[in-house]
Amino acid sequence: MSDPFKRSFEPAPPAPAAGSITARARGAHRAPYLEGLNPEQREAVETLDGAVLVLAGAGTGKTRVLTTRIAHILSLGRARASEILSVTFTNKAAREMKTRIGAMVGEAVEGMPWLGTFHSIGAKILRRHAELVNLKPDFTILDVDDQIRLLKQLIAAENIDEKRWPARLLANQIDSWKNRGLSPDQVSAGEGATFANGRGRDLYAAYQARLKTLNAADFGDLLLETIRLFRQHPEVLRQYQTRFKYILVDEYQDTNVAQYLWLRLLAQRTSGTAAADLVLRDAALRAAPQDEAREEPASAISAPTPRPEEPAHSAGVSKDVAPLGPPKNICCVGDDDQSIYGWRGAEVDNILRFDHDFPGAKVIRLERNYRSTAHILGAASHLIAHNEGRLGKTLRSEGEAGERVVVSTAWDSEEEARAVGEEIEQLQRQGHRLDEIAILVRASFQMREFEDRFVTLGLPYRVIGGPRFYERAEIRDAMAYLRLVNQPADDLAFERIVNVPKRGLGDAALQNLHDLARARGVPLIEAARAMGTSEAVKPKPRAALRDLVAAFDRWRAQRDTLPHNELAEIVLDESGYTEMWQKDRSADAAGRLENLKELVRSMEEFENLQGFLEHVALVMDTDRGEDHEAVSIMTLHAAKGLEFDTVFLPGWEEGLLPHQRSLDENGRAGLEEERRLAHVGITRARKNARISFVSNRRIHGSWTSSLPSRFLDELPEQHVEVREAKGGFGGYGNAYGSRFDTTAAFGSSYTTPGWRRAQKSRGGFEEDPHEYSQVEPDEPAGRMRDVGASRAPGGGTNGAFKPAAARPAPSFAASSASGTPPRRAPVTIEGELVARSTGAPSAFSRGDRVFHQKFGYGRVRAVDGNKLTIQFDKAGEKKVVDSFLNKA
DNA sequence: CAGCGTTCCATTTTT
DNA sequence: TGGAACGCTG
Predict the structure, then answer these.
(1) Which positions does UniProt annotate for ATP binding (predicted)?
(2) Maximum distance among all alpha carbons in chain A?
(3) Is A30 (CB) below 7 Å from strand B?
């Protein structure tokens, strides 16, 4: 291979086709693993050179493509296992890939050291070069608890009222900065001001400094610090660029800006070129909220370490990035229609702009679905087609038509749960396995009602999600002990266990330790050592401190002689931690002891303590299989990637399935993400999808009547069966009656097909079947009702709302013509106005007085793109989209 | 430092 | 409505 550095200066050749042709010719004859792939899959596997984006719809064999591709690379001898970088988001996905590659190529999996999550690979790289980013190779990976505790201290140290500015909030803010690849110096002043009246950025910087002295990194750092390492040490970057001959990325639609930058750096053929920095500028521009980019172009746009030899690029240049040299062989697999993690920093833009970011990229669509029936796919496809920001795919079923998607309704959530329970029992009687049935909810509070009902019925169920094994208090405590044995300077671990079990070392004692430690510049445990012999300390705490320090000295001495799992047992026993739980009489104490045992047992699999600690921080996950057959209950988010024969989708109501908060905070983008969530839900089903909505739901204790989800309107008639629930509890007529009244009172006539179907289902009026055909995917505006504002008297289109510009006029004519009450002029949904990440800058800035139709007068507290945080005079602080505001 | 009352809040969550 | 988290009191 020629010198990669040199090559990057050559003009970008198109991705060489020759390679794949040869591969195909060879593969056709001698590769059994290629058998059974459909043509698109095969193309995705065999297109090895350059950048490839595989748009893999739900159930189209995404993992198979990824794993086969790796097998293909290996079997052609294109690269060794250690030269393939393969990243996933979850450990589960990584594990599955390992297993499946193992099944194909055998032993070589063990030699795939670079197959893992973004974070675990980031950690691996970082440990190798820790000293270059001011860490030691054995740095600690902090969990969220530690992070919050640390931030609390910093906030207190700054004399900021933690009530008003909770550490949690700051943690989220810092996290979101890290997600966007911003280090403290890159956070623009305007945005840095969002926390505690302008001290957010300083706190972030202080936090980072503190992490260094603690020799610790949080999850975000595993990526961000790696990026910094790569930028500041091109020779290190080059080493990895050379090593990784092929890069594969799973779930590309979920990547955030930091992950994108990380990938970009590695996918360059060489570092240090102007082109590479241009890319970074581009990404930084995308990452920085527009308003701040305007305020402070320099800080928002410039790369972190400006290279003096490079000419400064104007902002104008970075908008249209110069093409890069040929990218490495990078293959990203994803599905924009399944991007449901925007709220935690995922940038759909990454996938939407792939061919822009990687010029000459080949885009391959996988649209043959092997999972679901034609009815299910028809419904899902039609629904998702209402989204605008998508690359567009049409899933085709390779199976039979199957049954239509069933839509049913219930009076309230209790009855909904009852109906689902009955249906499941019936399925069970028909011989369906409970393992093949799932209930997918939008929000976890919905689960409770199902659990209650299933307990009553004696129907086995399993809640997926919830607190992870390593998030449990007892595991974290035990881990803190082990961390401290491993790393005396781990102050956060020390704080966690200094008084667990109770040693009479309360807040006061800890405060003294802190003071001393700070004064002397030593870790807490050293301060404890000093105070343990100091006359100034009262005898009782003095003895406690002495014992504690002595214990840790002892354990540390044993570290090299004892197997680490035995050591762990000794630590837990001698510290009194095990005893603490043995004495505890609460119901879950036994379970906690069990978990501790499990923890110790699982240590056997690791070579040393260090390796184990790394594992728990990054890898250990929740699904320790319960073996009995049970119905699964989980959130729609948790269901991504899973499939079941039968899927129940309860709670399709306005405000819950398009979740109100998503609409309020992210407007149109939020709505589209909610729709993707609905789409993910339906496509989990192989044979049966059963959607339901209720008229009344208890929210925060009080009953609220609800409207059917707009997504119901977006389901195509031919694939849907509206079924009247059996049982007759509660009186449906009543339900509809009252809801109809409510609707009328709002003045927004509810005449959409979904609604009318519902009417029909209880023997209401008949409607013209043509109605349904009016629901076309290309008519999104017409389907969107204004959610918030229309409820206010006289709400709707008014001065506060911008018109729905540049959208095709919705075809209302037909529905009016067919005798339905005339609908009002199209009302813009809040989202219409909302920014995508590349949207226009907000016209508002901090401090502006504003007026909001619903919340009244207020003042702008913070600006984040088009999302504003407003302190309303009456309604309190809210996040709103700027287009909902007028200047006051 | 434990226990109790009060207050506040209430999508989605991986690593 | 229900829980978690906090602050006050004994």
Answers:
(1) 56-63
(2) 93
(3) no
Q: Which residue has the higher pLDDT, A238 or A190?
A: A238
Q: Taking the C1' atom of B8, which residue's CA lies nearest?
A: A163
Structure tokens at A861: 């507290």
In chain A, % helix, strand, coil (3-state, to 5) comes to: 50, 15, 35
Residues of chain A with CATH 1.10.486.10: 472-583+599-605
Whole-number Cα distances in Å, A259 to A53, A283, A351, A843: 16, 11, 12, 30
The CATH homologous superfamily of the domain defined by A396-460+629-723: P-loop containing nucleotide triphosphate hydrolases (3.40.50.300)
| CATH 3.40.50.300 location in chain A | 34-133+222-274+325-366, 396-460+629-723
Does at least one atom of strand C sit less than 7 Å from the CB of A506? Answer: no
Nucleotides of strand C under 7 angstroms from a protein beta carbon: 1-2, 7
Give me the residues paired with residue A86 across strands: A115, A248
**Catalytic residue list of A:** 62-63, 250-251, 338, 684
Q: What is the pLDDT of residues A23-74, one digit of tens each?
A: 444 444 567 888 889 999 999 999 999 999 999 999 999 999 999 999 999 9
Residue extent(s) of CATH 1.10.10.160 domains in chain A: 140-214
Q: How many CA atoms lie within 13 A of A77 on its CB side?
A: 2
Tokens found for residue A323: 């093409």
Tell me what the mean pLDDT of segment A723-729 comes to.
Answer: 52
User: Residue A764: which region, alpha, beta or left (left: phi > 0; alpha: psi -120 to 50)?
Assistant: beta
Look at A753-767, A827-841, A851-865 and tell me which has the smallest mean pLDDT: A827-841
- Show Cβ contacts of residue A44 under 8 Å, excluding neighbours closer than 6 positions: A52, A54, A65, A69, A331, A333, A364, A366
Q: How far lies A402's CA from each of A325, A338, A692, A720, in Å?
A: 49, 23, 19, 11
A839 is in an annotated binding site: no
Element (H, E) at A368: strand A368-369
Q: What is the pTM of this model?
A: 0.74
The CATH code for residues A34-133+222-274+325-366 is: 3.40.50.300
What does the DSSP 8-state code read for residue A779?
-
- The CA-atom distances, in angstroms, between A501 and each of A504, A572, A591, A885 are 9, 11, 18, 54
Residue A58 annotated in ligand binding: yes
State the Cα–Cα distance between residues A51 and A470, nearest whole angstrom. Answer: 37
- Tokens 């197959």 map to which residue? A115
Map residue A439 onto helix, strand or coil: strand
Mean pLDDT of A526-547: 87
Strand C at less than 7 A from CB of A700: yes
Supply the DSSP string of A347-366, one letter for each residue: -HHHHHTHHHHSTT-EEEEE
Q: Where does A140-214 sit in CATH, by number?
A: 1.10.10.160
A587/B4 CA-to-C1' distance in Å: 21
CATH 2.60.40.3780 describes domain A472-583+599-605: no
Give the distance, in angstroms, between residue A357 CA and nucleotide C7 C1'.
Answer: 54
Count of other CB atoms within 10 angstroms of residue A79 = 18
CA distances from A700 to A3, A241, A707, A708, A734 (A): 64, 53, 18, 20, 24
CA angle A374–A379–A385, rounded 5-degree value:
120
3-state secondary structure of A272: coil
Whether A413 contacts A757, CB under 8 Å: no
